[in-house]
């Protein structure tokens, strides 16, 4: 399983030091692919601290331009240069609050891949979409827009995180059959646009209110290849327990 922690805009650099020390002291190597997606300010500190462990690091965003006049932005090249392995792209908080559109997401994915960063592409329906029975349609549009112009072999470096917007930070999670259905719908889009083989190979994670109590049940759902964890990753002791509790 792939277990990704999205720390969002939490923890100063010194708090991250403490977090990683606590996590590593309780961490079982080799059990899962564990990725910490941290604020930019603590990535270099974290890189030094995780050295020798199999924990990977990710950023939570990157610029949709390769270089140049983009005050306040961080490029794919900069992330690769400091040894970052993953980057989250298209998180719903960025799509809504920062008005990140489909074109920018597609550009970011291409830049990330060019800089040898593995992409965690977030997709998911709003509550309004769900109520209008438009979940699959939304997922299809988001995936097709994001992956436009990509070659099939590039999908090896893409992980899709299915995160219903209404489940993020709300304590609400979809029914198991809904998660399974949505992930099947995601694979169907990949099968249609690329190939059946690619659709079976691509890793699809679930995110949205994953916690210590529900993590193993969600992980066991057919089609789920991993978890994207927000709130429940913020305490290192809790998160290391969550990693242990995922038995799949
Ligand atoms: P949550 O966040 O686990 O707190 O719901 C998940 C996310 O936003 O990626």
Task: Provide an overview of this structure.
42% of the residues lie in helices and 15% in strands. It has a single domain (2-245), classed as Aldolase class I (TIM Barrel, Alpha-Beta Barrel). By secondary structure, the chain is α/β, with parallel strands linked by helices. The radius of gyration is 17 Å and the shape is globular. The model has no long low-confidence stretch (mean pLDDT 97). The chain has an eight-stranded parallel beta barrel with strand order 1-2-3-4-5-6-7-8, surrounded by four helices. It binds 2-phosphoglycolic acid (PGA).
Describe the structure using short key phrases.
single chain; 248 residues; alpha/beta; TIM Barrel; eight-stranded parallel β-barrel; 11 helices; 8 strands; 42% helix; 15% strand; binds 2-phosphoglycolic acid
Q: Which bin fits the share of residues in helices?
A: 40-55%
Biggest β-sheet strands, sense, barrel: 8 strands, parallel, barrel
Radius of gyration from CA coordinates: 17 Å
CATH topology, by name, is TIM Barrel
Anisotropy-based shape: globular
Q: What is the CA-CA span between the terminal residues?
A: 7 Å
Major sheet: arrangement of strands? 1-2-3-4-5-6-7-8
**Low-pLDDT runs:** none
**If helices are DSSP runs of H or I spanning 4 or more residues, what is the number of helices?**
11
* Strand element count: 8
Q: Secondary-structure element order, as H and E?
A: EHEHEHEHHEHHEHHEHEH
């Amino acid at each position: 399983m792939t277990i990704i922690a999205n720390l969002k805009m939490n923890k100063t650099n010194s708090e991250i030091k403490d977090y990683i020390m606590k996590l590593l002291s309780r961490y079982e190597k080799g059990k899962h692919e564990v990725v910490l997606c941290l604020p930019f300010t603590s990535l270099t500190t974290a890189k030094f601290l995780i050295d020798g462990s199999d924990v990977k690091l990710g950023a939570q965003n990157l610029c949709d331009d390769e270089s140049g006049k983009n005050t306040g932005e961080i490029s794919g090249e900069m992330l690769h240069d400091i040894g970052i392995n993953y980057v989250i792209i298209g998180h719903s908080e960025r799509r809504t609050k920062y008005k990140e559109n489909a074109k920018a997401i597609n550009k970011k994915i291409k830049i990330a891949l060019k800089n040898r960063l593995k992409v965690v592409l977030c997709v998911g329906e709003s509550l309004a979409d769900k109520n209008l029975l438009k979940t699959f349609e939304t997922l299809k549009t988001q995936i097709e827009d994001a992956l436009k112009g990509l070659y099939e072999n590039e999908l090896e470096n893409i992980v899709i995180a299915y995160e219903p917007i209404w489940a993020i930070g709300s304590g609400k999670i979809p029914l198991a059959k809904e998660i399974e259905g949505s992930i099947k719908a995601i694979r169907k889009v990949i099968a249609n646009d690329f190939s059946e083989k690619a659709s079976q190979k691509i890793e699809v994670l679930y995110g949205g209110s994953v916690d210590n109590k529900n993590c193993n049940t969600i992980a066991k759902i057919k089609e789920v290849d991993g978890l994207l964890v927000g709130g429940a990753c913020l305490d290192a002791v809790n998160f290391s327990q969550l990693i242990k509790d995922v038995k799949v």
